[in-house]
Protein backbone atom coordinates (compact mmCIF):
# COMPACT_ATOMS: atom_id res chain seq x y z
CA UNK A 1 0.00 0.00 0.00
CA UNK A 2 1.34 3.49 -0.82
CA UNK A 3 2.58 5.67 2.04
CA UNK A 4 -0.22 8.17 1.49
CA UNK A 5 -3.23 6.14 2.66
CA UNK A 6 -5.67 8.92 1.85
CA UNK A 7 -4.70 8.85 -1.84
CA UNK A 8 -4.89 5.06 -1.87
CA UNK A 9 -8.43 4.88 -0.48
CA UNK A 10 -9.50 7.84 -2.60
CA UNK A 11 -8.40 5.87 -5.66
CA UNK A 12 -10.35 2.79 -4.53
CA UNK A 13 -13.46 4.88 -3.87
CA UNK A 14 -13.29 6.43 -7.34
CA UNK A 15 -13.87 3.12 -9.16
CA UNK A 16 -17.70 3.04 -8.83
CA UNK A 17 -17.81 6.74 -9.67
CA UNK A 18 -16.03 6.08 -12.96
CA UNK A 19 -18.70 3.53 -13.86
CA UNK A 20 -21.39 6.14 -13.29
CA UNK A 21 -19.62 8.59 -15.60
CA UNK A 22 -20.57 6.34 -18.52
CA UNK A 23 -23.78 7.92 -19.76
CA UNK A 24 -26.95 6.38 -21.11
CA UNK A 25 -26.56 7.02 -24.79
CA UNK A 26 -26.03 3.67 -26.53
CA UNK A 27 -28.49 2.22 -28.95
CA UNK A 28 -28.11 0.20 -32.14
CA UNK A 29 -31.05 0.02 -34.53
CA UNK A 30 -31.34 -1.72 -37.85
CA UNK A 31 -32.40 0.50 -40.75
CA UNK A 32 -34.94 -1.48 -42.78
CA UNK A 33 -36.88 -0.94 -45.99
CA UNK A 34 -35.03 2.25 -46.83
CA UNK A 35 -32.23 2.98 -49.25
CA UNK A 36 -29.14 4.03 -47.25
CA UNK A 37 -28.27 7.71 -47.52
CA UNK A 38 -24.59 8.67 -47.61
CA UNK A 39 -23.71 12.34 -48.06
CA UNK A 40 -21.38 15.04 -46.80
CA UNK A 41 -24.07 17.29 -45.35
CA UNK A 42 -27.19 16.76 -43.29
CA UNK A 43 -29.82 15.18 -45.52
CA UNK A 44 -33.46 16.31 -45.08
CA UNK A 45 -34.52 12.72 -44.40
CA UNK A 46 -31.75 12.03 -41.88
CA UNK A 47 -32.96 11.05 -38.41
CA UNK A 48 -31.25 11.51 -35.02
CA UNK A 49 -29.36 8.53 -33.67
CA UNK A 50 -31.50 7.04 -30.84
CA UNK A 51 -30.28 6.68 -27.25
CA UNK A 52 -30.98 4.14 -24.54
CA UNK A 53 -30.66 3.41 -20.84
CA UNK A 54 -27.64 3.19 -18.55
CA UNK A 55 -28.43 -0.50 -18.00
CA UNK A 56 -28.19 -1.26 -21.73
CA UNK A 57 -24.80 0.38 -22.13
CA UNK A 58 -23.41 -1.32 -19.01
CA UNK A 59 -24.53 -4.66 -20.45
CA UNK A 60 -22.84 -3.81 -23.76
CA UNK A 61 -19.45 -2.61 -22.45
CA UNK A 62 -17.87 -6.08 -21.84
CA UNK A 63 -18.18 -6.87 -25.57
CA UNK A 64 -16.98 -3.54 -26.93
CA UNK A 65 -13.50 -4.83 -27.70
CA UNK A 66 -14.42 -8.24 -29.14
CA UNK A 67 -14.26 -9.20 -32.80
CA UNK A 68 -17.75 -10.71 -32.62
CA UNK A 69 -19.43 -7.59 -31.25
CA UNK A 70 -18.81 -5.30 -34.22
CA UNK A 71 -19.62 -7.95 -36.79
CA UNK A 72 -22.74 -9.24 -35.06
CA UNK A 73 -23.86 -5.70 -34.27
CA UNK A 74 -23.67 -4.79 -37.94
CA UNK A 75 -25.36 -8.01 -39.03
CA UNK A 76 -28.20 -7.87 -36.49
CA UNK A 77 -28.72 -4.19 -35.68
CA UNK A 78 -27.40 -2.01 -38.45
CA UNK A 79 -24.46 0.25 -39.13
CA UNK A 80 -24.85 3.05 -36.59
CA UNK A 81 -24.97 3.07 -32.81
CA UNK A 82 -24.50 5.71 -30.15
CA UNK A 83 -22.93 5.51 -26.71
CA UNK A 84 -20.91 7.68 -24.37
CA UNK A 85 -17.68 7.16 -22.45
CA UNK A 86 -16.50 9.41 -19.63
CA UNK A 87 -19.22 11.87 -20.56
CA UNK A 88 -18.17 12.17 -24.21
CA UNK A 89 -20.83 11.13 -26.78
CA UNK A 90 -19.47 8.59 -29.26
CA UNK A 91 -21.06 7.46 -32.53
CA UNK A 92 -20.02 3.96 -33.55
CA UNK A 93 -19.94 2.97 -37.23
CA UNK A 94 -19.53 -0.56 -38.54
CA UNK A 95 -19.25 -2.55 -41.73
CA UNK A 96 -17.63 -2.18 -45.13
CA UNK A 97 -20.08 0.58 -46.03
CA UNK A 98 -18.81 2.64 -43.10
CA UNK A 99 -15.22 2.15 -44.26
CA UNK A 100 -16.12 3.42 -47.74
CA UNK A 101 -17.93 6.38 -46.20
CA UNK A 102 -15.10 7.33 -43.82
CA UNK A 103 -12.46 6.91 -46.53
CA UNK A 104 -14.40 9.32 -48.74
CA UNK A 105 -14.70 11.76 -45.83
CA UNK A 106 -10.93 11.55 -45.30
CA UNK A 107 -10.31 12.41 -48.95
CA UNK A 108 -12.68 15.37 -48.61
CA UNK A 109 -10.82 16.47 -45.43
CA UNK A 110 -13.99 16.23 -43.37
CA UNK A 111 -12.48 14.23 -40.48
CA UNK A 112 -9.80 14.89 -37.88
CA UNK A 113 -8.00 12.80 -35.27
CA UNK A 114 -9.84 12.45 -31.98
CA UNK A 115 -7.43 11.47 -29.23
CA UNK A 116 -8.33 12.61 -25.70
CA UNK A 117 -6.20 15.55 -24.55
CA UNK A 118 -4.43 13.35 -21.99
CA UNK A 119 -3.43 10.93 -24.78
CA UNK A 120 -2.17 13.79 -26.95
CA UNK A 121 0.04 14.98 -24.09
CA UNK A 122 1.18 11.41 -23.39
CA UNK A 123 2.16 10.65 -27.00
CA UNK A 124 3.88 14.00 -27.54
CA UNK A 125 4.86 15.78 -30.74
CA UNK A 126 4.10 13.00 -33.26
CA UNK A 127 2.09 12.40 -36.44
CA UNK A 128 -0.60 10.33 -34.71
CA UNK A 129 -1.98 13.40 -32.92
CA UNK A 130 -1.60 15.84 -35.83
CA UNK A 131 -3.92 16.86 -38.65
CA UNK A 132 -3.53 18.55 -42.02
CA UNK A 133 -0.11 19.85 -43.03
CA UNK A 134 1.33 19.06 -39.59
CA UNK A 135 0.35 15.41 -39.97
CA UNK A 136 1.91 15.23 -43.44
CA UNK A 137 5.11 16.84 -42.17
CA UNK A 138 5.48 14.45 -39.24
CA UNK A 139 4.70 11.39 -41.39
CA UNK A 140 7.43 12.42 -43.82
CA UNK A 141 9.74 12.98 -40.87
CA UNK A 142 9.65 9.32 -39.82
CA UNK A 143 9.19 7.70 -43.25
CA UNK A 144 12.89 7.06 -43.97
CA UNK A 145 13.16 3.57 -42.41
CA UNK A 146 10.19 2.38 -44.50
CA UNK A 147 11.69 3.27 -47.87
CA UNK A 148 14.23 1.50 -50.07
CA UNK A 149 17.09 0.76 -49.82
CA UNK A 150 16.82 0.68 -46.02
CA UNK A 151 13.60 -1.35 -45.98
CA UNK A 152 15.04 -4.22 -47.99
CA UNK A 153 18.21 -4.32 -45.90
CA UNK A 154 16.22 -5.38 -42.83
CA UNK A 155 15.21 -8.80 -44.19
CA UNK A 156 18.50 -10.64 -43.47
CA UNK A 157 18.61 -8.97 -40.04
CA UNK A 158 15.07 -10.06 -39.19
CA UNK A 159 15.81 -13.61 -40.33
CA UNK A 160 18.94 -13.73 -38.15
CA UNK A 161 17.08 -12.32 -35.13
CA UNK A 162 14.34 -14.95 -35.52
CA UNK A 163 16.83 -17.77 -36.01
CA UNK A 164 18.90 -16.88 -32.93
CA UNK A 165 15.94 -16.37 -30.58
CA UNK A 166 14.05 -19.51 -31.68
CA UNK A 167 17.21 -21.65 -31.64
CA UNK A 168 17.78 -20.72 -28.00
CA UNK A 169 14.28 -21.99 -27.21
CA UNK A 170 15.15 -25.38 -28.71
CA UNK A 171 17.50 -25.94 -25.78
CA UNK A 172 14.48 -26.27 -23.45
CA UNK A 173 12.03 -27.76 -26.03
CA UNK A 174 9.16 -25.64 -24.65
CA UNK A 175 8.51 -22.18 -26.07
CA UNK A 176 6.37 -19.40 -24.63
CA UNK A 177 5.00 -17.98 -27.89
CA UNK A 178 4.02 -14.61 -26.41
CA UNK A 179 7.44 -14.06 -24.87
CA UNK A 180 9.32 -15.15 -28.01
CA UNK A 181 7.17 -13.06 -30.36
CA UNK A 182 7.70 -9.98 -28.20
CA UNK A 183 11.45 -10.61 -28.02
CA UNK A 184 11.63 -10.93 -31.79
CA UNK A 185 9.62 -7.79 -32.56
CA UNK A 186 11.35 -5.54 -30.03
CA UNK A 187 14.71 -6.86 -31.27
CA UNK A 188 13.66 -5.94 -34.82
CA UNK A 189 12.71 -2.42 -33.71
CA UNK A 190 15.88 -1.90 -31.67
CA UNK A 191 18.23 -3.63 -34.11
CA UNK A 192 16.86 -2.54 -37.48
CA UNK A 193 15.18 0.81 -36.76
CA UNK A 194 17.06 2.07 -33.69
CA UNK A 195 20.39 0.74 -34.97
CA UNK A 196 21.56 -1.19 -31.88
CA UNK A 197 24.27 -3.54 -33.11
CA UNK A 198 24.44 -7.24 -32.17
CA UNK A 199 20.98 -7.01 -30.62
CA UNK A 200 20.71 -10.80 -30.20
CA UNK A 201 24.04 -11.22 -28.39
CA UNK A 202 23.95 -12.68 -24.89
CA UNK A 203 25.56 -9.51 -23.53
CA UNK A 204 22.54 -7.42 -24.54
CA UNK A 205 19.78 -9.68 -23.21
CA UNK A 206 19.53 -7.90 -19.84
CA UNK A 207 19.29 -4.53 -21.59
CA UNK A 208 16.67 -5.93 -23.97
CA UNK A 209 14.58 -7.07 -20.99
CA UNK A 210 14.81 -3.57 -19.52
CA UNK A 211 13.56 -2.03 -22.77
CA UNK A 212 10.63 -4.48 -22.77
CA UNK A 213 9.71 -3.73 -19.15
CA UNK A 214 9.66 0.02 -19.70
CA UNK A 215 7.75 -0.34 -22.97
CA UNK A 216 5.09 -2.44 -21.22
CA UNK A 217 4.75 0.21 -18.51
CA UNK A 218 4.52 2.88 -21.20
CA UNK A 219 1.76 1.02 -23.05
CA UNK A 220 -0.16 0.20 -19.86
CA UNK A 221 -0.07 3.89 -18.95
CA UNK A 222 -1.41 4.92 -22.35
CA UNK A 223 -4.48 2.70 -21.93
CA UNK A 224 -5.12 3.57 -18.28
CA UNK A 225 -7.22 6.21 -16.53
CA UNK A 226 -5.11 9.41 -16.77
CA UNK A 227 -4.58 9.96 -13.04
CA UNK A 228 -0.99 11.02 -12.40
CA UNK A 229 -0.41 9.69 -8.87
CA UNK A 230 2.62 7.63 -7.76
CA UNK A 231 0.73 4.33 -7.51
CA UNK A 232 -1.11 4.53 -10.86
CA UNK A 233 -0.30 2.86 -14.17
CA UNK A 234 -0.47 6.28 -15.83
CA UNK A 235 2.29 7.62 -13.58
CA UNK A 236 4.48 4.54 -14.11
CA UNK A 237 3.91 4.86 -17.84
CA UNK A 238 5.11 8.47 -17.88
CA UNK A 239 8.23 7.52 -15.92
CA UNK A 240 8.99 4.66 -18.30
CA UNK A 241 8.41 6.89 -21.30
CA UNK A 242 11.05 9.27 -19.96
CA UNK A 243 13.47 6.34 -19.52
CA UNK A 244 12.82 5.19 -23.09
CA UNK A 245 13.23 8.71 -24.47
CA UNK A 246 16.54 9.26 -22.68
CA UNK A 247 17.89 5.91 -23.92
CA UNK A 248 16.81 6.84 -27.45
CA UNK A 249 18.55 10.22 -27.23
CA UNK A 250 21.77 8.55 -26.04
CA UNK A 251 21.58 6.15 -28.98
CA UNK A 252 21.12 9.06 -31.34
CA UNK A 253 24.18 10.87 -29.99
CA UNK A 254 26.36 7.76 -30.30
CA UNK A 255 25.20 7.09 -33.86
CA UNK A 256 25.61 10.71 -34.93
CA UNK A 257 29.24 10.72 -33.76
CA UNK A 258 29.91 7.55 -35.75
CA UNK A 259 28.15 8.94 -38.82
CA UNK A 260 29.99 12.27 -38.70
CA UNK A 261 33.30 10.41 -38.69
CA UNK A 262 32.26 8.20 -41.61
CA UNK A 263 31.20 10.79 -44.20
CA UNK A 264 28.33 8.56 -45.36
CA UNK A 265 25.06 9.80 -46.89
CA UNK A 266 22.60 10.35 -43.99
CA UNK A 267 19.68 9.13 -46.14
CA UNK A 268 21.07 5.59 -45.86
CA UNK A 269 21.78 5.79 -42.13
CA UNK A 270 19.80 4.81 -39.04
CA UNK A 271 16.47 6.30 -38.03
CA UNK A 272 18.19 8.49 -35.43
CA UNK A 273 20.79 9.87 -37.83
CA UNK A 274 17.99 10.73 -40.25
CA UNK A 275 16.08 12.55 -37.50
CA UNK A 276 19.24 14.40 -36.45
CA UNK A 277 19.58 15.71 -40.01
CA UNK A 278 15.89 16.68 -40.28
CA UNK A 279 14.31 20.08 -39.67
CA UNK A 280 11.08 21.04 -37.94
CA UNK A 281 8.22 22.98 -39.56
CA UNK A 282 10.16 26.23 -39.14
CA UNK A 283 13.43 25.00 -40.60
CA UNK A 284 15.14 24.44 -37.25
CA UNK A 285 16.93 21.24 -36.15
CA UNK A 286 14.70 18.89 -34.17
CA UNK A 287 15.05 19.17 -30.41
CA UNK A 288 15.88 16.11 -28.34
CA UNK A 289 12.37 15.82 -26.88
CA UNK A 290 10.80 15.65 -30.36
CA UNK A 291 13.30 13.00 -31.45
CA UNK A 292 12.47 11.00 -28.32
CA UNK A 293 8.73 11.29 -29.04
CA UNK A 294 9.25 9.97 -32.60
CA UNK A 295 11.15 6.99 -31.18
CA UNK A 296 8.29 6.23 -28.76
CA UNK A 297 5.76 6.30 -31.59
CA UNK A 298 7.91 3.85 -33.56
CA UNK A 299 8.04 1.44 -30.61
CA UNK A 300 4.35 1.77 -29.83
CA UNK A 301 3.22 1.25 -33.42
CA UNK A 302 5.69 -1.43 -34.46
CA UNK A 303 6.38 -3.74 -31.53
CA UNK A 304 3.28 -5.17 -29.83
CA UNK A 305 1.04 -5.08 -32.90
CA UNK A 306 3.46 -7.21 -34.95
CA UNK A 307 3.92 -9.61 -32.04
CA UNK A 308 0.14 -9.96 -31.79
CA UNK A 309 -0.16 -11.04 -35.44
CA UNK A 310 2.77 -13.47 -35.16
CA UNK A 311 1.13 -15.17 -32.16
CA UNK A 312 -2.29 -15.34 -33.83
CA UNK A 313 -0.88 -16.72 -37.07
CA UNK A 314 1.15 -19.41 -35.28
CA UNK A 315 -2.02 -20.36 -33.40
CA UNK A 316 -4.09 -20.55 -36.59
CA UNK A 317 -1.43 -22.58 -38.42
CA UNK A 318 -1.24 -25.04 -35.53
CA UNK A 319 -5.01 -25.46 -35.56
CA UNK A 320 -5.11 -25.89 -39.36
CA UNK A 321 -2.45 -28.45 -40.38
CA UNK A 322 -3.24 -28.19 -44.09
CA UNK A 323 -2.51 -24.46 -44.05
CA UNK A 324 0.68 -25.06 -42.04
CA UNK A 325 1.81 -27.64 -44.59
CA UNK A 326 1.26 -25.21 -47.46
CA UNK A 327 3.13 -22.38 -45.69
CA UNK A 328 6.01 -24.74 -44.86
CA UNK A 329 6.22 -26.27 -48.33
CA UNK A 330 6.19 -22.86 -49.96
CA UNK A 331 9.13 -21.79 -47.78
CA UNK A 332 11.00 -25.04 -48.50
CA UNK A 333 10.49 -24.59 -52.24
CA UNK A 334 12.05 -21.12 -52.13
CA UNK A 335 14.77 -21.52 -49.49
CA UNK A 336 15.33 -25.26 -49.20
CA UNK A 337 14.89 -27.35 -46.07
CA UNK A 338 18.30 -26.46 -44.72
CA UNK A 339 18.00 -22.96 -43.21
CA UNK A 340 21.27 -21.75 -44.68
CA UNK A 341 20.27 -19.52 -47.59
CA UNK A 342 19.90 -15.93 -46.42
CA UNK A 343 16.52 -14.39 -47.20
CA UNK A 344 16.40 -11.29 -49.37
CA UNK A 345 13.69 -8.69 -49.88
CA UNK A 346 13.06 -9.95 -53.43
CA UNK A 347 12.10 -13.37 -52.01
CA UNK A 348 9.08 -12.08 -50.13
CA UNK A 349 6.82 -11.63 -53.17
CA UNK A 350 7.18 -15.36 -53.86
CA UNK A 351 5.51 -16.24 -50.53
CA UNK A 352 1.99 -15.96 -51.95
CA UNK A 353 0.26 -18.47 -49.66
CA UNK A 354 1.93 -17.02 -46.56
CA UNK A 355 0.75 -13.61 -47.72
CA UNK A 356 -2.81 -14.95 -47.89
CA UNK A 357 -2.45 -16.53 -44.44
CA UNK A 358 -1.36 -13.18 -43.01
CA UNK A 359 -4.37 -11.43 -44.58
CA UNK A 360 -6.69 -14.11 -43.21
CA UNK A 361 -5.21 -13.67 -39.73
CA UNK A 362 -5.73 -9.91 -39.94
CA UNK A 363 -9.31 -10.44 -41.11
CA UNK A 364 -10.24 -12.69 -38.19
CA UNK A 365 -8.11 -11.20 -35.42
CA UNK A 366 -7.14 -7.61 -36.11
CA UNK A 367 -4.60 -6.44 -33.48
CA UNK A 368 -6.30 -3.06 -32.99
CA UNK A 369 -10.08 -3.09 -33.26
CA UNK A 370 -11.07 0.56 -33.45
CA UNK A 371 -10.04 3.92 -34.84
CA UNK A 372 -11.30 7.27 -33.51
CA UNK A 373 -12.21 10.27 -35.65
CA UNK A 374 -14.00 13.62 -35.28
CA UNK A 375 -16.35 15.17 -37.84
CA UNK A 376 -15.57 18.68 -39.07
CA UNK A 377 -19.01 19.21 -40.64
CA UNK A 378 -22.52 17.74 -40.61
CA UNK A 379 -22.65 14.32 -42.29
CA UNK A 380 -25.29 11.74 -43.11
CA UNK A 381 -24.63 8.01 -43.10
CA UNK A 382 -27.12 5.17 -43.53
CA UNK A 383 -29.98 7.61 -43.07
CA UNK A 384 -28.69 9.04 -39.80
CA UNK A 385 -27.65 12.62 -39.14
CA UNK A 386 -24.12 12.93 -37.70
CA UNK A 387 -23.57 16.49 -36.41
CA UNK A 388 -20.32 18.42 -36.80
CA UNK A 389 -17.78 17.89 -33.99
CA UNK A 390 -19.12 14.38 -33.34
CA UNK A 391 -16.72 11.74 -32.04
CA UNK A 392 -16.68 8.65 -34.26
CA UNK A 393 -15.53 5.16 -33.36
CA UNK A 394 -15.08 2.82 -36.33
CA UNK A 395 -15.07 -0.97 -35.89
CA UNK A 396 -12.10 -1.61 -38.15
CA UNK A 397 -12.15 -5.30 -37.18
CA UNK A 398 -15.61 -5.81 -38.61
CA UNK A 399 -15.13 -4.01 -41.91
CA UNK A 400 -13.58 -6.94 -43.77
CA UNK A 401 -14.94 -9.80 -41.71
CA UNK A 402 -17.41 -10.97 -44.35
CA UNK A 403 -14.92 -10.88 -47.21
CA UNK A 404 -14.88 -14.17 -49.15
CA UNK A 405 -18.02 -15.50 -47.45
CA UNK A 406 -18.90 -17.22 -50.73
CA UNK A 407 -15.73 -19.33 -50.49
CA UNK A 408 -15.83 -20.45 -46.84
CA UNK A 409 -17.64 -19.60 -43.59
CA UNK A 410 -16.37 -16.29 -42.24
CA UNK A 411 -15.45 -17.76 -38.85
CA UNK A 412 -13.17 -20.31 -40.56
CA UNK A 413 -9.43 -19.74 -41.11
CA UNK A 414 -9.24 -20.15 -44.88
CA UNK A 415 -6.32 -18.30 -46.56
CA UNK A 416 -7.46 -19.53 -49.98
CA UNK A 417 -10.15 -16.84 -49.99
CA UNK A 418 -7.33 -14.34 -50.70
CA UNK A 419 -5.64 -16.25 -53.51
CA UNK A 420 -8.08 -14.99 -56.16
CA UNK A 421 -6.17 -11.84 -57.07
CA UNK A 422 -8.94 -10.38 -59.24
CA UNK A 423 -10.69 -9.28 -56.03
CA UNK A 424 -7.62 -7.54 -54.59
CA UNK A 425 -8.08 -4.06 -55.94
CA UNK A 426 -7.46 -1.20 -53.65
CA UNK A 427 -3.78 -0.65 -52.92
CA UNK A 428 -0.20 -1.57 -53.58
CA UNK A 429 0.02 -4.04 -50.69
CA UNK A 430 -2.86 -6.13 -51.97
CA UNK A 431 -5.47 -5.56 -49.28
CA UNK A 432 -9.11 -5.48 -50.30
CA UNK A 433 -11.06 -2.23 -50.00
CA UNK A 434 -12.86 -3.68 -46.97
CA UNK A 435 -9.82 -5.19 -45.22
CA UNK A 436 -7.78 -2.30 -43.88
CA UNK A 437 -6.23 -3.52 -40.60
CA UNK A 438 -3.57 -0.81 -40.76
CA UNK A 439 -6.16 1.95 -40.77
CA UNK A 440 -6.95 4.32 -43.61
CA UNK A 441 -6.40 7.89 -44.68
CA UNK A 442 -3.84 10.29 -43.29
CA UNK A 443 -3.60 8.46 -39.96
CA UNK A 444 -3.02 4.99 -41.40
CA UNK A 445 0.00 3.04 -40.18
CA UNK A 446 3.08 4.39 -41.93
CA UNK A 447 5.01 1.24 -40.96
CA UNK A 448 2.75 -1.11 -42.93
CA UNK A 449 5.50 -2.15 -45.42
CA UNK A 450 7.86 -3.02 -42.54
CA UNK A 451 5.16 -4.93 -40.65
CA UNK A 452 4.23 -7.15 -43.61
CA UNK A 453 7.88 -7.74 -44.45
CA UNK A 454 8.60 -8.66 -40.82
CA UNK A 455 5.64 -11.05 -40.59
CA UNK A 456 6.64 -12.92 -43.75
CA UNK A 457 10.28 -13.16 -42.71
CA UNK A 458 9.59 -14.30 -39.14
CA UNK A 459 6.96 -16.93 -39.99
CA UNK A 460 8.86 -18.32 -42.99
CA UNK A 461 11.98 -18.69 -40.84
CA UNK A 462 10.06 -20.17 -37.91
CA UNK A 463 8.32 -22.94 -39.89
CA UNK A 464 11.65 -23.98 -41.44
CA UNK A 465 13.35 -24.18 -38.04
CA UNK A 466 10.96 -26.12 -35.81
CA UNK A 467 8.09 -28.54 -35.51
CA UNK A 468 5.61 -27.26 -32.94
CA UNK A 469 2.55 -28.37 -31.01
CA UNK A 470 0.47 -26.50 -28.48
CA UNK A 471 0.76 -27.73 -24.89
CA UNK A 472 -2.91 -26.79 -24.43
CA UNK A 473 -4.93 -27.28 -27.62
CA UNK A 474 -7.32 -24.35 -27.11
CA UNK A 475 -6.11 -20.75 -26.93
CA UNK A 476 -8.48 -17.99 -25.83
CA UNK A 477 -7.64 -14.43 -26.85
CA UNK A 478 -8.44 -11.06 -25.35
CA UNK A 479 -8.80 -8.03 -27.63
CA UNK A 480 -7.99 -5.00 -25.49
CA UNK A 481 -5.83 -3.05 -25.85
CA UNK A 482 -4.26 -5.42 -28.41
CA UNK A 483 -5.18 -8.99 -29.36
CA UNK A 484 -3.19 -11.42 -27.18
CA UNK A 485 -3.76 -14.84 -25.59
CA UNK A 486 -5.27 -14.83 -22.12
CA UNK A 487 -2.19 -16.14 -20.34
CA UNK A 488 0.56 -18.24 -21.89
CA UNK A 489 0.54 -20.01 -25.23
CA UNK A 490 3.16 -22.72 -24.75
CA UNK A 491 4.49 -24.82 -27.61
CA UNK A 492 6.39 -28.08 -27.55
CA UNK A 493 9.07 -27.56 -30.19
CA UNK A 494 11.69 -29.73 -31.84
CA UNK A 495 14.32 -29.02 -34.46
CA UNK A 496 13.62 -29.88 -38.11
TrEMBL record:
Q: Has UniProt tagged this entry with the keyword Cell division?
A: no
Ordered alphabetically, the record's keywords are: Heme, Iron, Metal-binding, Monooxygenase, Oxidoreductase
Q: Which cofactor does it need?
A: heme
Q: Which SUPFAM superfamilies match?
A: Cytochrome P450
Iron in keyword set: yes
Q: Where does heme bind?
A: 445
For this protein, the record's Pfam families field holds: p450 (PF00067)
Query: What does the entry give for GO biological process?
Result: sterol metabolic process
Tell me one GO molecular function of this protein.
monooxygenase activity
> Record's family?
Belongs to the cytochrome P450 family.
Name of the protein: Cytochrome P450
Per the UniProt record, the source organism is Boothiomyces macroporosus
The opening ranks of the lineage are: Eukaryota, Fungi, Fungi incertae sedis, Chytridiomycota, Chytridiomycota incertae sedis
Amino acid sequence: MPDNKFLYWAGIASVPLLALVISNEYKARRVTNRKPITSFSAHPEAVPIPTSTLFEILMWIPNIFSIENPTNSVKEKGLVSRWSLLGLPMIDLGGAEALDFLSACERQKLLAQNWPSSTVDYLGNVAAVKDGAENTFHRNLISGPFKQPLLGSYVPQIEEITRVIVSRELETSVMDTVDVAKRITISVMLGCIFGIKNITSADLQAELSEWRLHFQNYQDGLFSVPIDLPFTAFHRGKQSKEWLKQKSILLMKEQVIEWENSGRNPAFETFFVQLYNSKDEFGNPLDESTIGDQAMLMLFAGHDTSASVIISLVSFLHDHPDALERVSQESYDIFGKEPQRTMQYSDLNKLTYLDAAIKETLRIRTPVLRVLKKTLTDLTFDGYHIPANSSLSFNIAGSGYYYGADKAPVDQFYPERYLDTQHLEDNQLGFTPTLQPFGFGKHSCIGKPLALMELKTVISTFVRLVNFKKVKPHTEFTHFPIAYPKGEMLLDISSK
